[in-house]
Amino acid sequence: MPEAPTPSQLRPLASPSPDKHVEYSTPIGDTVKTTTCYMCACRCGIRVHLKDGQVRYIEGNPDHPVNKGVLCGKGSAGIMTQYSPAKLRAPLKRIGPRGSGEYAEISWDEALETATGWLKHVRETDPRQLAFFTGRDQSQSLTGFWAAQFGTPNFAAHGGFCSVNMAAGGLYTIGGSFWEFGEPDWDRAKYFLMFGVAEDHDSNPIKMGLAKMKARGAKFISVNPVRTGYSAIADEWVGIRPGTDGLFALALAHELLRTDQIDLEFLARYTNASWLVVRNPGGADDGLFARDEAGKPLAWDRARGAVDASLVDLSAVMVGDFTLADGRKAQPVFQLMAERYLAPEYAPEAVAERCGIEAARIRTIAAEIADVAFNQAITLEQPWTDVWGRRHETMVGRPVAFHAMRGISAHSNGFHSCRALHVLQMLLGAVDTPGSWRYKSPFPRPIPPGPGPAGRGAKPNTPLAGNILSFPHGPDDLLVDDDGNPLRIDKAFSWDAPLALHGMMHTVIGNAGIGDPYKIDTLFMFMANMAWNSAMNPGEVIRILTEQQPDGEYTIPHVIYSDAYYSETVPYADLILPDTTYLERWDCISILDRPIGSAHGAGDAIRQPVLKPDRDVRPFQDVLIELGSRLGLPAFTKPDGSPRWKDYPDYIVNHERMPGVGPLAGFRGADGTKKGVGEPNPDQLQRYIDNGCFWRDHLPPEQSYYKHANKDYLEQSKAMGLMGKSDQIVMQIWSEPLQKFRLAAEGHGTRQPPDRLRERVRTYCDPLPIWYAPLEHTGQDLGEFDLSAITQRPMAMYHSWGSMNAWLKQILGSNKLYMARARGAALGIEQDDWVWVESRAGRLKCQVALMEGVNPDTVWTWNAIGKRSGAWNLDPGSTESTKGFLLNHVISEWLPAQEGFRQANADPVTGQAAWYDLRVKVSKCAPGEEGITSPHPETLGLPPHMPDRPDILRYSTKAKP
Hints:
The protein is built from 25 helices and 34 strands. The protein is α/β, with parallel strands linked by helices.
């Protein structure tokens, strides 16, 4: 036996000095270019290595503020998305029936002339007859502007069926929101609660942040019906029942209020908790804020009575019944909030069974939150000045952070659930303080942040004045006619969905199909796979797109579609305008739209083309700009009628939304030294390229926290054009805009909802967050449909893009229905059994996988793995189409039958699609039914001249793949 090593032998060897003659990192290309990834919505910086004009390698850009060099599997696999045989080759004109895939290649001149002809007729007659809806579009500041110039109110984007509840809930409550407009304080939080976060969104920053937290010993609690991804590394997993997150949050609020573990000073100074609310039941002013002659909200001062609530020396009374000078009665917001959430219905014992969480556990979590917030508070020795001009020597924080995403957003009660989480943050004083949740600059914004939406009074050849997707302050801002009927085809910003900030993309085709509120002539879509995974029920969408009238004309006469790939929606369009890939075009991740700012400063980015297309394709933004000039849209043409912009790069640099404010905030001014506001800089794009294709502002330490009341931050934000004024942003526990809608439903004001919607508006436009059972659950037998069914996004995929990628599909080429092992045993279902999944809307067939980490009353699957046979130039017998499936096939766009009208299966406040309210029953297939998923639509035919589909997809610098 060999001798044991001595202690000296166990010492690590000293690292040898690098040999200067050894090439440790052999160059893999002849050129490296930076750009921005588009394999998900994270918008990470990447370095693309090229050789002989071909991509050899993609890595993270270590200098980029979003990912700091980290890159996930999706980003690295961008090579295979670039070289996918699914890329469209040239403009296409349909020559067979819709859905047949029969197309003829045409020139760009013919394609643009055709599109111009259809669109010109619509604009000259009734611009509302154009519905322009974009999917996962990162150019919404352009597409929305184009729609307004065209004159149609019917523009919307992806957020209406993804996360508008999150955005609206936050923007109307704290002036920011989770994910894109805010982030946890990864460096200082000691206790972190994550609600329903998808694994594919923002994954690199979240992974880096979680690594920091766990290295510091912070406690991480994941609240999610399913334990995968982030939840799998959580210190504690709370397997909540879908749709009950808001109830759980309000139970935590109940406990904090009951035990007096709240930050009353924060509430009094930074929220509207002290504001007086008029109590006049039945009156037109009931529930509105008491105001002085200048319109400023009033609070009750201990010595002076009702005074301006913003006074620096206010000593507010937070509880009591008061009489105003004019004799009206009033109470503080805090009292109204406390009375509601201290009620027995929000006690842990009352909500435990509904949430699937034991009452004792709810109390424990509430106690842990309070302990960290108030016994482990953080104090930074950092002076700062508040909006009242007072200097503070320190910054004090409650180190409890929250983060949430689509898991709580995609329910019909999601808006109020998101607001409930924000109220919980405010009770703790955990909004933009050290260790809590932080605003991403350019947020916070005023509440609500802007004027109402444009769209009223649309008329031929006339642009709309304002932004189409904007922020109603009350009934007067709704897009309805004198009878209360919607003016938009999707019914956004109507009594059906007053705060539909992102539009309602999921209803446009269904509404157009029955002419409710009217028919349309042309459906124009970009990156919106509405005939498959982006439809709540693809079978119904396909039926409408192929439906013909007695005269043989299609119900929707013209469908124009732009995509880079042969998706399931392409065969249902009449005209295809093929887009480039993200590595072949310019893009602008604009501060006017979806910036890449952080808590440390504002930021934006570009994509530059690192490759030249090898096909007859054009960037959609270039196409849109050319269509704008061909149609004579005022902002896209010069006085002599010639094009104002030659292409998208020209637009990015020279377009000004207002004097000095353009799509990009960095390197402005003639010499590139200005930020935010400044005249166009002809070298702006080159400056971005030289800087790694991004720009980042760096906030000084005194502006790091308390941005909602930080004098220096707010003044700089105004100076940079990020907001119109530098006043304090007062967080809103009680929402007056919502109360205004409620008053209208109670019969007050000149603009009131139709009778059939009065009770709906009165109930759901509650000024304080409420919880109610998902609307989909009413009107059906929950005993029969005894399981909730949800989808999740895997970290390696994103929407429908990932599973046609030759590398990523090897990770996840098919999906199964995941079920709790005990539930499967009770149903006689074993691993890999084939089952029928039935809902009130239909049924599908798939395979089951049994697991432990799932709520026992919930089944789930990965979203968008299933593909239609023949789409994406995949083999018709690929596992994506034979073993993969969509849960969408059993979801309905509409709620159960109602009396005389139909209502979208959506949040009644924002219109967000309620994907996750689905209820199903699961039964084992009969012998002989196994083998292939169902429904299994017929194989799609390929358009002409698509490339051969190789058995093994390779990329090479020697030959085109």
